[in-house]
Design a protein that fits this description.
The complex is a heterodimer of chains A (320) and B (433). Chain A is an alpha/beta fold. Chain A has helices at residues 3-7, 24-38, 66-77, 98-107, 122-127, 145-159, 177-188, 217-221, 245-252, 256-259, 282-286, 292-310, and strands at residues 55-60, 81-86, 112-117, 133-139, 166-170, 192-196, 211-213, 226-229, 267-269. Chain B has two domains: 2-60 and 379-387 and 396-429, Roll (Urease, subunit C, domain 1), CATH 2.30.40.10; 63-368, Metal-dependent hydrolases (TIM Barrel, Alpha-Beta Barrel), CATH 3.20.20.140. Chain B is 31% helix and 22% strand. Chain B has 14 helices and 18 strands. The two termini of chain B are 33 Å apart. Classes of the chains: A alpha/beta (320), B alpha/beta (433).
Chain lengths: 320, 433
């Protein structure tokens, strides 16, 4: 082996748990891999044999339509065998612990487990007890790394680079795993991330993650290259965080008027599903600059890349 | 009867140790003689058959007393029993513990108290039961303090949960005093802490965990202080974790409120950073706080704001701990690490040796109104011998407690108990022959 080969980058992560685990090089490599896979989804026959014979389990403890579907499509386009377990069909309701359920899964020897769980840190817990690769598809209010990566990919597609951009994230930052992954990811790649929301939506010491907390939506949006609105989680309203969706929409809803403060070519993003008229007005969601459906399309490519990389795809084997 | 006892009794001589007995203002090298379970005056000649220990370089102190432990019996014997818990106590240098009433059934009646004391009679440490403030610790209605006191309860607490109803707490303080008891408060404002699983701050933000703000403790501490002042009763604040609560207690003491307080080794040793990557062995209530809080707690130990160091020894099995962080039970074991961690405070110059003895023995005895805490002639021979230099690696295999839930696994410790005597009987020894 000569030194050139030794210096060659290798993706070294067995598990995808959080954006925080990645170096800048890791992130750029995932994005480059995803870009190379994106074209597969545009083919008439959307399938490559790369992960043939691999077993991938979608292990979802929370309701999810698009993330689960996105992972399933990604796995199937790579020819992996996929299985879905949701909390309602799993043993969780019979009192079995997460670890016991996972060990039972492990006994059937899956290659990758994609976990969505309401408890922050649940994917980390699994990695201590089973051998399969774990991909975090959202854990509590912690992280949602594949969503963060697809957001980076989408912005990069439209802006060429992330460095120097101003990203405004408006909404319930405290309870949003997407916001956490985005703040960490965009900051790592050199963007300035601003967040805004009522103080009840802002967790303490957000500066630790690199975000700048703004006192109003307008302050966050001024001169922004990207404006992202987060879904207001209505199911969390037992803890009084806002008085009403109506008042929230008035002060923090992303609408045309607010966007006049942003750059002319501002990108509009939303991790979905949208409460139209609450965190985003319908004309904004459907208007110029909205890349919400690009996010969904890129989600498949990112998840194909992650599955490929955790399966050691870098180490040889023709990809297509 | 005395004749038989004298024949059977042997003399134990603890030689050349550094005797530290702050109550009697003693800190000097010397010998301590024990016979018939009590400290006796040294004699001119060593009696035949006397057991002699050369304790050069060791400290001889009144038996350590932990005024806040959970022994889990009755009801959760898979976590700990009175036998295993008192063995762990002896191994940690403790000769007595006060056990909290959140067993199953709750210690809210004399029958449960008597059961605990019966089991404890066979144990390796004295056990002082704490009774419940409210029936079943359910937060409504007073438990029968008179009956509990007669049965042997030394204090009252609904520990594990706060007493939400302020009027109930006020009445508890008043009624406890009528029976010579006092209340130990688990100070937590539940509406602020509910569903939280660690300190609210930078680590909870990073981990996406719901936080418990420091104010959840100090709000309730303030209420307890106000009620103690209103009623003139003695209140003891358990497991203080924040600088804010420490300040409130300091101010209350200055104006003469009858308050005593304890903190624990984990609050003066660790911070929220110990949660790391969702380590459930660093989860307890109240939670580990910030570095500023840790420093404030250490200052409180130094300046007398805290009367006692207790462990809040809370055994849990892997069933409660090897789960999602937000589902994991609160609490860590502490009996076998408390002395070593407190000795680290002495080495760091935070407290001196005599203060360690006060915090871990004399003051708990005084607060609970029980024997111990001194080494005068005629006192019960509850004695702990400490080797302040002995180094050891704290590993799972050396844990005596039935449970292993501690964030200190793998820590290199310095200083430990090497001989524990309960009424003159050896309950633990780690002396080289």
């Amino acid at each position: 082996m000569d030194t050139d080969v030794k210096k060659k980058y290798h993706f070294r992560h067995k598990h995808i748990l959080e954006m925080a685990q990645f170096s800048v090089e890791d992130i750029l490599h995932v994005l480059a891999t995803a870009r190379s896979f994106k074209e597969i989804s545009a083919r008439p026959i959307k399938k490559v044999p790369t992960l043939r014979g691999k077993t991938i389990v979608n292990f979802f403890f929370e309701p999810s339509t698009r993330t689960r579907l996105s992972f399933e499509i990604a796995a199937k386009r790579m020819s992996a065998d996929t299985f879905n377990i949701s909390a309602s069909t799993s043993s969780a309701q019979k009192g079995e612990t997460l670890i016991d359920t996972a060990r039972n899964l492990q006994a059937m020897n899956p290659d990758v487990i994609i976990l969505r769980h309401p408890s922050s840190g649940a994917p980390q817990l699994l990695t201590r007890h089973i051998n399969a690769s774990i991909i975090n598809a959202g854990d509590g209010a912690h992280e949602h790394p594949s969503q963060g990566l697809l957001d980076l990919m989408t912005v990069m597609e439209h802006k060429g680079s992330i460095e120097g951009l101003t990203i405004a994230i408006i909404g319930d930052i405290a309870h949003s795993r997407v916001a956490h992954s985005d703040i960490i990811g965009f900051t790592k790649l050199g963007a300035q991330v601003r967040v805004a929301g009522p103080a009840t939506f802002i967790p303490p010491r957000l500066d630790m993650l690199g975000a700048q907390v703004c006192s109003s939506a307008a302050e966050a949006v001024v001169g922004a290259d990207v404006v992202m609105a987060l879904r207001i989680q209505q199911e969390r309203q037992h803890d009084p965080l806002i008085p009403s969706l109506r008042e929230y929409a008035r002060f923090y809803g992303v609408n045309r008027k607010l966007l006049q403060l942003a750059k002319k070519d501002v990108l509009i993003m939303h991790p979905g599903p949208i409460n139209r008229g609450v965190e985003m007005s319908p004309d904004v969601a459907d208007g110029p600059g909205a890349v919400i459906l690009d996010q969904v399309a890129n989600g498949v490519a990112i998840r194909m890349a992650l599955l490929y990389l955790v399966m050691g795809g870098d180490k040889g084997a023709a990809t297509t | 009867m005395t004749g038989i006892m004298t024949e059977m009794s042997e003399t134990i001589i603890l030689q050349n140790g550094r005797i530290i007995d702050p109550v009697n203002k003693v800190d000097a090298q010397g010998d301590l003689w024990l016979r018939d379970g009590r400290i006796v005056a040294p004699e001119s000649s060593v009696p035949e058959g006397a057991k002699q220990f050369d304790l050069q370089g060791k400290w001889v102190v009144p038996g350590l007393i932990d005024m806040h432990v959970h022994l889990r019996e009755p009801g959760q014997e898979y976590k700990e029993t009175i036998a295993s818990g008192t063995r762990a106590a002896a191994a940690g240098g403790f000769t007595a513990v006060a056990c909290m009433p959140n067993t199953n059934p709750v210690n809210d009646t004399a029958a449960v108290t008597r059961f605990i004391l019966e089991q404890a009679a066979k144990g390796s440490a004295r056990v002082y039961p704490v009774g419940a403030i409210s029936k079943g610790s359910g937060g409504t209605g007073l438990a029968e303090y008179g009956e509990l006191a007669v049965a042997g309860v030394v204090a009252l607490s609904d520990d594990g949960q706060p007493v939400v109803d302020s009027q109930l707490m006020r009445r508890a303080m008043e009624y406890a005093a009528s029976h010579g008891l006092f209340v130990i408060s688990h100070a937590e404002e539940l509406s602020l802490s509910r569903n939280g699983s660690m300190n609210e701050g930078q680590v909870s933000t990073r981990l996406g965990l719901r936080g418990i703000p420091w104010a959840a403790e100090s709000i309730m501490v303030y209420r307890e202080l106000a009620l103690a002042e209103l009623t003139g009763s003695h209140v003891h604040i358990a497991h203080v974790s924040t600088g804010a609560a420490t300040d409130l207690i300091r101010q209350a003491k200055k104006r003469g409120v009858r308050v005593t307080a304890e903190t624990t080794p984990h609050y003066f040793t660790l911070t929220e950073e110990a949660v790391g990557e969702y380590n459930t062995n660093a989860k307890m209530s109240p939670p580990l706080r910030t570095e500023e809080d840790r420093q404030a707690i250490r200052l409180g130990l130094q300046d007398g704001t805290f009367d006692a160091i207790a462990t809040d020894h809370a055994p849990h099995s892997v069933l409660e701990k090897q789960v999602e962080f937000d589902h994991a039970a609160n609490g860590i074991i502490g009996l076998e690490t408390s002395l070593s961690l407190t000795l680290a405070l002495v080495r760091a110059g935070v407290i001196h040796e005599g203060r360690l003895v006060e915090l871990m023995s004399s003051a708990p005895a005084r607060i609970l109104g029980v024997s111990g805490g001194t080494l005068a002639i005629g006192d019960v021979a509850d004695i702990t011998v400490i080797d302040p230099d002995r180094k050891f690696l704290f590993t799972e295999d050396r844990i005596v407690s039935l449970s292993r839930n501690t964030p200190f696994l793998g820590w290199q410790m310095q200083g430990k108990a090497v001989l524990t005597l309960l009424g003159g009987r050896i309950t633990y020894t780690d002396l080289p022959d």
